[in-house]
Design a protein that fits this description.
With about 160 residues, this protein is an alpha/beta fold. The protein contains four helices and eight strands.
Length: about 160
């Protein structure tokens, strides 16, 4: 945004501090009007013909704009992806404990990536890993749904759950 002497147009459409249209005038007259009010001349719409300029306190405008962006950042929530790792022969109690944690994560609106890791000869039991992931998806169905179905990535099966 161009301010005061940085505005290169010969004539501008001027808007006063309180929003009234003052008409088309030369840049020197517009700068004089802005200085008379103790404000800055700010180019609002440089692409129009002639460019539109407004008389305002530029420092105050920049401060308010930064406050708006800070306020917007406060309201945004960073999305986290939590990962739970399992083995195809994970014990029942351990599995129940991990499912309880997945439900907690989904209730906090986090995505959960569930991975079943295979080593050596366990690669022959990929179907057992798939049934395990499908069972987990059924058990956390109230809190979340499956975004990405079980897919094979090298020596692991992964599935992505998202909160409802």
């Amino acid at each position: 945004m161009n301010v005061n002497e940085r505005i290169r147009a010969k004539a501008v459409r001027l808007i006063s501090f309180d929003g009234q249209q003052l008409g088309i005038m030369s840049i020197s007259d517009a700068l004089g009007a802005a200085q008379k009010e103790g404000m800055d001349l700010v180019e609002v719409s440089p692409n129009s013909d002639p460019p539109v300029c407004k008389i305002m306190d530029y420092g105050k405008y920049k401060y308010q704009a930064s406050k708006k962006t800070q306020e917007g950042k406060k309201k945004t929530r960073t999305l986290q992806v939590k990962e739970i790792r399992l083995r195809p022969r994970t014990d029942e109690h351990d599995l129940d404990f991990k499912i309880k944690n997945m439900k907690k994560f989904l209730e906090k609106k986090d995505k959960v990536k569930v991975s079943v890791l295979f080593r050596g000869r366990e690669m022959a039991y990929m179907d057992a890993g798939k049934t395990l992931l499908e069972r987990i998806a059924q058990e956390v169905e109230e809190q979340g749904s499956m975004e990405q179905p079980p897919t094979k990535e090298g020596w692991r099966l992964t599935m992505l759950l998202v909160p409802k």
